[in-house]
Write a structure and sequence with these properties.
215 residues, alpha/beta, six-stranded mixed β-sheet, two-stranded parallel ribbon
C-alpha cells in the first residue's frame, strides 16, 4: 500500500477545472498504480509524484512495468491517501486534519479492507500521527501489535539527508519516506541508499504472494 497525505490537485488541473476545459477521463477503466493511462490517457505518464515513486522502486531493485496492467507485482500495489480530500498541498495545520475523525476513519478503513503487509507513507508526518492514541489502537486491531517503535534508518550522504523510518508490526511493516514531489532538495541518489533496507521488505511481499523477484 502506497499512502500519501491527500489526493493531489496540480495547479494545471486546477486551472483546467476553473477554465471549463475537458480532459479525457474514463472512471470505469481498470488501472494499476504504474499505469493509469487507461483512465487518464497519456497525461498519466507525466504525474511527478507517480514517476518519482516508480523510479524509487527501480532504485530498490523492484522495477514496475508500465506496459498494460503489468504483472502480479504491479497488480498487488494499492495507492491511497490518509485523507479523502484534494488539494495542492497539505495545510500547515496537518496534525488537526490528519487526526480528524473523518480522516482517521478513511485511513483505517483502507487498512482494514486490504490488510497490507507493507505500507509506504509518502510523507514524513504520517508515521508520527500513526502513534496517536486515536489511531494506533485501531491500526493494531488490523495488523497486530507493534514489535518496534519507529526507528530511523540513516546513511552517510554528502547532500541533504531526509528522515526515513521503519516501524514493524506483527503482520505489517511501515516505511516512512519523504514526500516524493514536495520535499525540496530530495535526491534520488539518497533514496537509493536504502535499497538494502527496503528491497528485502518488498521481497517478503513477493514471496508471500508467490511473485518471482526481479532483484
Amino acid at each position: 500500500m502506497i499512502c500519501g497525505y491527500e489526493w493531489g490537485l496540480s495547479q494545471e488541473d486546477q486551472r483546467i477545472a476553473e477554465s471549463g476545459e475537458t480532459q479525457f477521463c474514463d472512471p470505469g477503466a481498470v488501472t494499476t498504480f504504474s499505469n493509469k493511462s487507461p483512465m487518464h490517457g497519456d497525461r498519466a505518464f507525466g504525474v511527478v509524484y507517480d514517476n518519482r515513486i516508480i523510479k524509487w522502486f527501480d532504485l530498490w531493485g523492484h522495477p514496475l512495468s508500465r506496459e498494460g496492467l503489468g504483472g502480479d507485482f504491479e497488480k498487488c500495489i494499492l495507492q491511497t491517501n490518509w485523507c479523502d480530500t484534494q488539494g495542492n498541498r497539505i495545510e500547515e495545520d496537518y496534525f488537526s486534519k490528519l487526526t480528524s475523525e473523518d480522516q482517521i476513519n478513511n485511513f483505517i478503513s483502507h487498512v482494514a479492507e486490504f490488510e497490507p503487509m507493507l505500507l509506504f507513507f509518502m510523507g514524513s508526518k504520517m508515521i508520527d500521527i500513526l502513534q496517536d492514541a486515536r489511531v494506533l489502537p485501531r491500526f493494531v486491531e488490523v495488523v497486530g501489535q507493534a514489535t518496534s517503535a519507529p526507528y530511523e534508518l540513516s546513511r552517510p550522504f554528502a547532500g541533504r539527508p531526509f528522515k526515513v523510518q521503519l516501524q514493524e508490526f506483527e503482520k505489517c511493516k511501515v516505511v516512512s519516506l519523504p514526500h516524493p514531489s514536495g520535499s525540496w532538495g530530495l535526491s534520488d541518489d539518497y533514496i537509493a541508499l536504502f535499497k538494502d533496507d527496503i528491497g528485502p521488505l518488498i521481497d517478503e511481499v513477493k514471496l508471500e504472494k508467490g511473485i518471482s523477484s526481479s532483484v
